[in-house]
UniProtKB/TrEMBL annotation:
Cofactor(s) essential for the protein: FAD
Organism: Mesobacillus boroniphilus JCM 21738
Compartment list: Cytoplasm
Role noted for this protein: Cell wall formation.
Protein name as annotated: UDP-N-acetylenolpyruvoylglucosamine reductase
Keywords: Cell cycle, Cell division, Cell shape, Cell wall biogenesis/degradation, Cytoplasm, FAD, Flavoprotein, NADP, Oxidoreductase, Peptidoglycan synthesis
Catalytic activity: UDP-N-acetyl-alpha-D-muramate + NADP(+) = UDP-N-acetyl-3-O-(1-carboxyvinyl)-alpha-D-glucosamine + NADPH + H(+)
Length: 168
């Protein structure tokens, strides 16, 4: 595991921590250590990291902002990949929006609303990341992500909706 951590550090992919308590990364402030926890600083670095981790044969788990996680005191074996500020880009093209998996859902909903787009009002109070929201199909007030998601890219970026976002 030490070798893998060093290899990831050499690649300069972003933050690499060993034996990192997951309590530092969950809303409930619970959870034992991840053998390695990485926070890639860009989509390219995420790709590089995943290639190296796959080659190593070590198990990996993706998390977002930890708002729906109850992690045991035993922690999570292998590598935990946290999508955060390095993957929080946002592109708006008319009513089509592409957002990084690490972007905060609340910030996303507010930004979209300020740009005069409608369709994400339900998400204004749901904590977590875009990636977590898509994985969990987060919803409230009779609506949910499935109603606006156009596609989720395997690069872990998300393209959201042309159908349901409308100009106000
Ligand atoms: C106070 C509070 C209020 C809440 N209210 C609501 C609500 O109204 N409606 C609602 O639906 N939920 C609600 N939730 C639950 C939570 O906010 C959602 O489930 C949220 O979408 C989780 O996002 P996250 O980034 O925190 O994911 P995490 O908790 O980090 O992860 C959740 C799951 O998603 C997976 N995952 C995360 N990111 C990715 C990714 N990029 N790619 C693949 N898999 C990924 C993880 O492996 C894990 O299985 C609430 C939670 C809290 C604490």
């Amino acid at each position: 595991m030490k070798d893998l951590a060093n290899k990831l550090r050499e690649l300069n992919i972003g933050s690499v921590k060993e034996n990192e308590p997951l309590a530092n990364h969950t809303s409930m402030k619970i959870g034992g250590p991840a053998d390695i926890l990485i926070e890639p600083s860009s989509i390219e670095n995420l790709r590089k990291a995943v290639e190296v981790i796959k080659d190593s044969g070590v198990e990996w788990t993706v998390i977002g902002r930890g708002s729906n996680l109850l992690v045991s005191d035993k922690g999570i074996e292998g590598v935990v990949i946290k999508l955060g500020s390095g993957l929080d880009d946002l592109e708006i093209d008319g009513t089509r929006v592409t957002a990084g998996g690490g972007l905060s859902l609340v910030n996303f909903a507010i930004t979209i609303s300020r740009k005069g787009l409608s369709g994400l009002e339900f998400a204004g109070g749901i904590p977590g990341s875009i990636g977590g929201a898509v994985y969990m199909n987060a919803g409230a007030h009779g609506s949910d992500i499935s109603q606006i998601l156009e596609k989720a890219m395997c690069s872990l970026k998300m393209a959201l909706l042309s159908g349901s976002l409308t100009k106000r």
